[in-house]
Amino acid sequence: MAVYNPKSLRAEEFINDGEILETLEYAEKNKNNIELIDEILNKARPQKTESGTVCKGLTHREASVLLACDIPEKVEEIYRIAEEIKLSFYGNRIVMFAPLYLSNYCVNGCLYCPYHLKNKHIARKKLTQEEVRQEVIALQDMGHKRLAIEAGEDPVNNPIEYILDCIQTIYSVNHKNGAIRRVNVNIAATTVENYRKLKEAGIGTYILFQETYHKESYLKLHPTGPKHDYDYHTEAMDRAMEGGIDDVGLGVLFGLELYKYEFAGLIMHAEHLEAVHGVGPHTISVPRVKHADDIDPDVFDNSIPDEMFEKIIACIRLAVPYTGMIISTRESEEVRGKVLNLGISQISGASRTSVGGYTEEERPHDSEQFDVSDQRTLDEVVRWLMENGHIPSFCTACYREGRTGDRFMSLCKNGQILNCCHPNALMTLTEYLVDYASEETKKIGFELIGKELTKIPKDKVREIAVQNIEDIKASNRRDFRF
Ligand code: SF4
Ligand code: SF4
């Protein structure tokens, strides 16, 4: 039997089934142990030190105890601390991005995804480079600066060369004042050599959802195709890091397996990356199974209600305070509104989850990967965020300044990154308002920026930010950053 070892490179040792089961048992046994729960909450709370605010995070066992605990006042405390952490490290900023679907050809048999090979009635499509260009122009015209590209796994239709060509095309398009400044990539697990090629192509984060950490379920949910290989999939982030990609994004598809199991697995995966590579995941995504062509979420009997979903997000925030958290338009406006305060730091806006969805006249429901709950335009989402006290940010500065991997994490951990994030958010929001926003959004936005500028503590930084904002308003100069 495999023994738990977070430093191992073998999936069955760092995501160890025995350790997860023991963790769940420990959590269940201690879910009313007030003394222990208080101790864990104290550990999670942000601490003020001479060098700024710091957070210790939690182990998978500690975080699992909090997730299991349902004493109302302790759960309230979890939410309060999650909010405190969110405000300490991310302030009221929310980074915006959009997914871009390149191809829905796929040789895998994932039971929860309409792109599975056996779905014969879904329209299959792969964008040509000219179509990628058109999609990017449409995204730039909305105001997006950061994309996550998505493609099914198909070595014939979507080989790595195709993905690399698409990345090159995306970075090459500059429509009016538009530019895509960071391309994150969500493609199937691949080889170290291919990860190296992605790194050389200048990608931001490599994102790969584990779907489920439960091996037995994983094998059943992925009955055919290369994705069936649980170990190869689970060890992908180690290969990505070996290939030089230092920002990786984890995620599970909540609803496939018992959420407590997934939660423990996810935190263990983060611990593993930290133990082996010295840097944890850059982001964690929290998708839930949703309705789509050929897919009925009710057949997955582990679906989780909104309240539990919110608690999971809060507990992840406590466990890995320095990891960005992403939520997509799978979730409704209401759910998105709540979880933004609990630790989400990035959201997608005006997403199309079909191939070619940004340039089609009508919304093409027939090739979507999942139904989009939040159907608002980017302008509406931006305005809604500001009306709710958040600053929408189109910042991509870290990646472009080479602040990735452990360099990024150390700035994050000593709080210095805040000196960059806040002014960068205000400058990129100004770009958005000047170039793309409706009059109403502009009005709210400029008022907000005026107020937020006064909160920049360092005089010099504030002066530069004010000057740059004036430049953006008065000219076509763009892309200022700290
Ligand atoms: S989840 Fe990904 S790998 Fe699985 S069928 Fe869908 S596109 Fe293919
Ligand atoms: S400065 Fe870096 S961490 Fe902050 S919002 Fe920009 S890219 Fe993200």
UniProtKB/TrEMBL annotation:
<dbReference type="Pfam" id="PF04055">
    <property type="entry name" value="Radical_SAM"/>
</dbReference>
<dbReference type="GO" id="GO:0046872">
    <property type="term" value="F:metal ion binding"/>
</dbReference>
<dbReference type="InterPro" id="IPR007197">
    <property type="entry name" value="rSAM"/>
</dbReference>
<protein>
    <submittedName>
        <fullName>[FeFe] hydrogenase H-cluster radical SAM maturase HydG</fullName>
    </submittedName>
</protein>
<dbReference type="InterPro" id="IPR013785">
    <property type="entry name" value="Aldolase_TIM"/>
</dbReference>
<keyword id="KW-0479">Metal-binding</keyword>
<dbReference type="InterPro" id="IPR024007">
    <property type="entry name" value="FeFe-hyd_mat_HydG"/>
</dbReference>
<dbReference type="InterPro" id="IPR058240">
    <property type="entry name" value="rSAM_sf"/>
</dbReference>
<dbReference type="GO" id="GO:0042364">
    <property type="term" value="P:water-soluble vitamin biosynthetic process"/>
</dbReference>
<dbReference type="InterPro" id="IPR010722">
    <property type="entry name" value="BATS_dom"/>
</dbReference>
<dbReference type="Pfam" id="PF06968">
    <property type="entry name" value="BATS"/>
</dbReference>
<dbReference type="InterPro" id="IPR034428">
    <property type="entry name" value="ThiH/NoCL/HydG-like"/>
</dbReference>
<keyword id="KW-0949">S-adenosyl-L-methionine</keyword>
<keyword id="KW-0408">Iron</keyword>
<keyword id="KW-0411">Iron-sulfur</keyword>
<feature type="domain" description="Biotin and thiamin synthesis-associated">
    <location>
        <begin position="285"/>
        <end position="392"/>
    </location>
</feature>
<dbReference type="GO" id="GO:0051539">
    <property type="term" value="F:4 iron, 4 sulfur cluster binding"/>
</dbReference>
<dbReference type="GO" id="GO:0044272">
    <property type="term" value="P:sulfur compound biosynthetic process"/>
</dbReference>
<dbReference type="GO" id="GO:0003824">
    <property type="term" value="F:catalytic activity"/>
</dbReference>
<keyword id="KW-0004">4Fe-4S</keyword>
